[in-house]
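In this section we turn from sequence analysis to structure. A common task in structural bioinformatics is to predict how a protein folds when a small molecule is present, because the ligand can shape the pocket around it. The inputs are simple: the amino acid sequence and a SMILES string for the ligand, here N-(aminocarbonyl)-beta-alanine. Study the lines below before reading on.
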Amino acid sequence: SIDAVRLLSRIEQLGQIGRDGEDRLVRLAASDADKSGRDALVSWMKEADLEVAVDRIGNIFGIWRASSAEDQAPIMIGSHIDTVIDAGVYDGCYGVLSGLEVIQSLRSAGFVPSRPIVVAAFTNEEGVRYTPDMMGSLVYAGGLPVEEALASVGTDGTVLGEELARIGYAGSKEPGFLKPHAYVELHIEQGPVLEKAGVQVGAVENLQGISWQRITIEGVANHAGTTPMSLRADAGYAASRVISFLRDRAASSPTPTVATVGCISFEPNAVNIIPSRAVFTVDLRDPNEDRLQAEEAALADFLIELAAAEKVTIATERMARFTPVTFDRAIVKLVEAAAEQRGLSSMRMTSGAGHDAQMIARICPAAMIFVPSIGGISHNPREFTPEADLVAGANVLLDVVSQLASK
Amino acid sequence: SIDAVRLLSRIEQLGQIGRDGEDRLVRLAASDADKSGRDALVSWMKEADLEVAVDRIGNIFGIWRASSAEDQAPIMIGSHIDTVIDAGVYDGCYGVLSGLEVIQSLRSAGFVPSRPIVVAAFTNEEGVRYTPDMMGSLVYAGGLPVEEALASVGTDGTVLGEELARIGYAGSKEPGFLKPHAYVELHIEQGPVLEKAGVQVGAVENLQGISWQRITIEGVANHAGTTPMSLRADAGYAASRVISFLRDRAASSPTPTVATVGCISFEPNAVNIIPSRAVFTVDLRDPNEDRLQAEEAALADFLIELAAAEKVTIATERMARFTPVTFDRAIVKLVEAAAEQRGLSSMRMTSGAGHDAQMIARICPAAMIFVPSIGGISHNPREFTPEADLVAGANVLLDVVSQLASK
Ligand SMILES: NC(=O)NCCC(=O)O
Ligand SMILES: NC(=O)NCCC(=O)O
């Protein structure tokens, strides 16, 4: 079993790195705060005697090359340590630190793996500062050219490649330099399913499709007091109609489709001026690709009608688009078996969130292990998983990895 | 008649002062750009041999003290030279520069007034940087203590009193130091009424009530991918419902009520996080006070229902509230008569915009003169009034002022 005290203490320590003036955890990809988090992770990897490698997109790898099996394709355990704005401490970090913990525990227990074991921390999984999300693993899996990713411009106008160089994490390894034999990711569920079902371990068998768009509506700025309602081309009102449409449609549908408008801005953004422009994001998800396409089409149709009715022009821009992913059945079964052997309840489930596993699944068999999120809360400082569940999940990861590295 | 070339050239010159990097006219109250505009106005006042005075709230006065009538209560002509963001060149400036022009023309024509004539430029009429709007004239009329106004914190975190001192326009005169005998304000209509009616001059007999509120909705931040629609407390969605409610209600009502949401922000404002907070402004107007109160009450009721239905909390904060104003009938008649004598068509009308005249009407008989705004466009760089209409309006002002200053 893993060293629970060491794991929990590292989660606690990493969670203190990157607090802003209001004590919020904000460790956005390639920021100064991210550098501090990366530095802590690298020092722990070195403490565990791992070889540390960084690739061109800034992904960090801690490699245990069992000497007899140096040339074999490795088992990779991974997740990310970048966070959203005002984040909880578990999202991503739990998976990376558990991977490190698993390697350290196996090693000190004298386990002899049949192939190297690697723990990876992928760059910019959250997609808050740079889009798309899961960028480091997407590049690693060959789904996005590294040059294109490095050229991404952030919400703050920065360029990812420059920021990585500035914080000292523009590595020299070519993304994909280690082709994994298998990949496992342990993560908090970030949703309410496990807690509601009273189940300790999720054996994640698939992950829903994700569609991100940015919508820009152009109307006509005019005076709020003198312009009759009938003569307005109000970009802000049109935006409100889209937000309501998406939410009402998703909420009234029997499908698991989810729709969210998380970002918005108006121009000129003055109390007595009708907005000339509204820009906002749409996050649409569904486990079924056909249904996700149907939702995108319904939105597109609605925008056409709305533009005509409100005398506005509407442009959409693709930010990210990932089809649903089915994970490797054999690894999912290993997760179930490991849980059972430890006396833990488990259930198969879908991931609502995007994860690095969905990208790495393009280049090797992959699966995920979930533990409960109390109240289903994530991307929020109140994100919480009880210690017993955190330790149980890490032990299931240990068992799955030792199985995969025994063959 | 006034000197059309001089007036039009000053409007043109003042409109070039305060252009930002994108060539937008942004001369927000008490900004560096406003300082440059004020300096130009003061130099023109001095050129016209007027005594210049500045009061504690930064209102600028150009005073022509006809020597025989120094102690009489003056005729005041006024408006403002601060602008909105990305403004047109006429709003406010046209009234101030016409006032200056009228005094200069009367003087050089040898007119001997029965009382002093003053042209005033009031501080922060637009209310974009500091609230409430019409602040300088409100303070001047005794409707807001000067200390309170000077302590206002702007949208950029600045304090008005400090900004006025910084730009050199924190004067020493007590607001209200000149009690006017009568007040007249010439302004572009900023709405479509005169152009649609094909009429050259508006004799403004009243001004609608204005209600500004800031609404803050608090929901719960959560993950956009993992949180089922039924478990959300989405502050952004709730805001969209309010925006739609206001617009749909106003648009479907037979009354002239107008409702606008001009400003908005979400927190944490990330593509994959359900907004925990939405803050936006509401601008509600109606010429009838009972109806305006009914609209405010309807909004308040809607917010109560919405908070319960969406599991959010909603707080409202008053930004500004002005009851409708009826202007002085005798001055309105002078406007009509002056237009008629010049062979100009005129009509009585309501002002949709707030104006300094509505504040000064608290301390003396007041009225306004409107000229057409092409397409009803204002608070927009495409704001436009043909030169002939600008000149006609200034001549009507000349006639009204000379009448008022003859008695
Ligand atoms: N796990 C996680 O929060 N990933 C961020 C990408 C997403 O929005 O699902
Ligand atoms: N005239 C004008 O635009 N005033 C600003 C105050 C308002 O919003 O009506």
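The mean pLDDT of chain B is 97. As an exercise, try to locate the residues that line the N-(aminocarbonyl)-beta-alanine site and compare them with your own expectations.
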